Design the sequence.
């Protein structure tokens, strides 16, 4: 039997970096392998963060290259293969080729537990590999388990097994355990769906639920079914975006520089903007105000992004980069940013949390790591 590997993908953004620090600090006994899928189109700030993180972890972050042996960097290599067709939300060939394929090649067929940096204040699932040897765990959430594991454990056909496993677990308060058993015995139905039962069990006793799931996995092929113990089971913390920024600051690793606010003034009204994600500097998931951030902060990179549109393909469906930087268009985008800021409460972090919360995580990297 192969040894179960623990891995954590570093996107270069706030959440995955904070998770690496958190796990290193709280569970130093876990032998975690860190990796970074390098597209060749990252901001310098991203590489700087990874250097800082390596120093804190005392361990190398393995840099995965999706185009080894190619004279071009990974993105340009695959762009040529796709005939200059730029990736988009409807054709995310970059995520597949630059992130997923290198990741699955990195873990190969070994049983793997992959730690994923989705926060407790987010309502989304990450990419879940279809490879049976890869299991995702979410330490920042109250529910650390992936959707497929929850479906397996709470399935009505497994109801008797669920109750038996709960009965096997020691408890300091039999009255509380009795109440939890009543929840466990209740079958799923239209009036009692899975998400409600899951919430009831977690609220009643998160650590007990984790131990029940862990025990239930012993009869499966999931990687965690192959290990004797897993310290994260005892974690019942829920970490939010404020915690992420705090962890980065207190560790000394620091917050990625692209999250820092840039101030601007329009008709006497003051606003600010920043970048909200890690990943390629030309990520098509960027909001238009973030393209303006790139234009003003890194004009040389904005120029390179424009050059990719020369073959008729565009990063945005309805607008070219050469049009978005016309003075009147920049003004319109900043006016919309002012309206957006007026609808948001003031953030506590000193960073542009209002945009970050609207975005889809940390770009393509956050889809699966």
Sequence:
């Amino acid at each position: 039997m192969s040894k179960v590997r623990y891995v954590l993908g570093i996107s270069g953004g706030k959440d995955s970096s904070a998770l690496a620090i958190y796990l290193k600090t709280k569970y130093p006994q876990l032998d975690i392998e860190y990796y970074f899928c390098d597209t060749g189109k990252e901001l310098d700030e991203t590489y700087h963060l990874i250097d800082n993180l390596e120093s804190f972890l005392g361990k190398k972050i393995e840099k995965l290259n999706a185009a080894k042996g190619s004279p071009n960097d990974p993105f340009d290599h695959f762009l040529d293969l796709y005939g200059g067709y730029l990736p988009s939300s409807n054709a995310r060939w970059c995520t597949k080729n630059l992130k997923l394929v290198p990741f699955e090649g990195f873990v190969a067929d070994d049983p793997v537990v992959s730690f994923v940096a989705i926060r407790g204040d987010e309502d989304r699932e990450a990419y879940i590999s279809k490879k049976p040897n890869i299991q995702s765990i979410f330490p920042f959430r109250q529910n650390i388990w992936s959707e497929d594991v929850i479906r397996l454990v709470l399935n009505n056909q497994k109801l008797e097994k669920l109750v038996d496993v709960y009965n096997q677990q020691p408890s300091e308060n039999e009255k509380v355990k009795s109440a939890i058993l009543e929840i466990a015995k209740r079958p799923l139905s239209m009036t009692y769906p899975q998400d409600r039962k899951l919430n009831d069990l977690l609220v009643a006793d998160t650590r007990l639920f984790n131990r029940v799931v862990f025990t239930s996995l012993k009869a499966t092929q999931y990687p965690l079914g192959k290990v004797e113990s897993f310290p994260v089971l005892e974690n019942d913390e829920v970490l939010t975006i404020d915690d992420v920024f705090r962890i980065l600051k207190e560790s000394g690793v620091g917050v990625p520089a692209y999250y820092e606010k840039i101030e601007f003034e329009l008709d006497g009204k003051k606003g600010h903007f920043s970048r909200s994600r890690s990943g390629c500097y030309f990520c098509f998931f960027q909001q238009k105000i973030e393209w303006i951030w790139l234009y003003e902060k890194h004009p040389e990179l904005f120029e390179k992004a424009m050059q990719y549109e020369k073959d008729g393909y565009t990063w945005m469906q309805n607008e070219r980069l050469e049009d978005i930087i016309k003075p009147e268009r920049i003004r319109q985008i900043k006016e919309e940013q002012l309206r957006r800021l007026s609808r948001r409460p003031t953030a506590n972090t000193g960073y542009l949390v209002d945009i970050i919360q609207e975005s889809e995580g940390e770009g393509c990297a956050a889809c699966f790591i």
About this structure: The chain is about 45% helix and 10% strand. The longest strand covers residues 32-37. The chain has three domains: 5-145+235-251, 149-228, 258-358. Residues 149-228 form one domain.
